[in-house]
Amino acid sequence: MRSAGAGVAAVDALPFRAELTESFEIAGGAAHAHEGVFVRLRLADGTEGWGEAAPLAAFNGETPAGALSAIRRAGRAWLGRDAAAWRARLEELEEALPRGAGAARAALGMALLDAWTRRAGLPLRALFGGARTSVTSDVTVTLLPPDAAAAAARRIRALGVRTVKIKVGRDPADDAARVAAVAAVDPGFTLLLDANQGYGPRESLDLLRRLRAKGARVALFEQPARAGDWDGLARVGRLGRVPVAADESLRGRADALGLARARAVSVLNLKLMKMGVLEAWDCALIARAAGLGLMIGGMIETSLAMACAAHLAAGVGGFQVVDLDTPLWLKRDPGRGVRFGRGGLYDLSRVRAGIGVVPRLPLIPGRADASTTAAAAGTARRPRRPPPRA
Ligand SMILES: [Mg+2]
Questions:
Q1: Assigned CATH topology for domain 126-357
Q2: Separation CA 360–CA 374 (nearest Å)
Q3: What is the pLDDT of residues 244-297, one digit of tens each?
């Protein structure tokens, strides 16, 4: 039966740009700004929900223009459909947007679930299971020289954060120096590594040997081999005696099942932007059923998408690693509401309905589609962009 007033009445796509405090460099390349797309979904009774697409070309090649056109196409198909049957809507979204449009899937799914839970008067975490009311995030150190990495680690310690994720994957000697510099700032830090498939198992094992010689203990190594090299992932875990997490190797349910069956990794890193909300949620349940550990992360996202991920992790429960720090990289977070708090805490206990974050309007238009952005965001002129940093 159709629920009165819960039909999807409008879906708007609003491309935006948020400047970063510094470039975000990983093994696959660097990002100099967050170019994303917000989705505003309105139900027939006037309830609004918000979602965010955060494509990151350096991670998986997705672009703002691709996300925008996918959102427009799939959003149109939802007009008049019942949001109360949200699971059916999310399944339609997966059919309409197969592989390669994870950011658009995430944005539309998030907006639909935000609208539906606002209408129902429930915090989004309750829809996911309501297991917990908060999660605690780490903070990332990117591919910085040792001095700069140590300075970043001191800032992280000052935030009260105890877990530091360090990007590696270009050169084992440089990486070992960076990790040692971070570890020296506070011996109590829990250290996670992420090679973003910049290394094969040989280099990853070399890095672990160098770190062991320096007395640095690694709690988790993310993607220490190419995405398709499941044997390599298993080898690093076995010979390096470290829990290994799949990130780039995990693109959806089939990978989650395959990685679990092959015992290739011990942790799955979920991201809404890789596969959308429903498939990420299903992967969490697959991991729980298979006895694998759970991690949640993101691309470069505002507090809207990060808070949505926090609701998923808190709602399902059992996430050992939470990596939702990217709002810290934004000069001005365009999201307003739930924030990355002291010690990395996402406190969702006071969210009464939905995600608990809305974008501040007007937005700084993104370059995905300048002409319609200006109209959609209600801004008259597009500000000049500073030249990208090298
Ligand atoms: Mg990763």
A1: TIM Barrel (3.20.20)
A2: 15
A3: 999 999 999 999 999 999 999 999 999 999 999 999 999 999 999 999 999 999
